[in-house]
Q: What sequence folds into this?
């Protein structure tokens, strides 16, 4: 577990992605601490929403594990509505 003062890596990754979404170039380093904290809060909310996997995520993870593939990646692909090649799956 990360120290209390450390920002967890996944929170930071998602926060940067949220901040830079739709921008032509990365601008994370130019943001104020307050702005970064706002994106970090949004990132934490996104991660918390994924805490309980959907049925599709469970199924994808189980299938991937049976075939010696990465179950976590398969579960995230299912959450994003993508197949293992990153293509959007129509439900």
A:
């Amino acid at each position: 577990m990360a120290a209390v003062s450390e920002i967890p890596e996944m929170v930071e990754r998602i926060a940067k992605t949220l901040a830079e979404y739709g921008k032509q170039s990365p601008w994370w380093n130019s943001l104020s601490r307050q702005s970064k904290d706002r994106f970090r809060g949004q990132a934490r909310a996104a991660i918390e929403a994924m805490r309980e996997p959907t049925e599709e995520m469970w199924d994808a993870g189980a299938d991937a594990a049976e075939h010696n593939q990465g179950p976590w990646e398969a579960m995230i692909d299912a959450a994003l509505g993508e197949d293992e090649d990153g293509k959007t799956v129509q439900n």
Observations:
- The two ends are 37 Å apart (CA to CA).
- The chain has four helices and no strands.
- The helical segments are 9-20, 33-49, 55-66, 71-80.
- The chain has a mean pLDDT of 85.
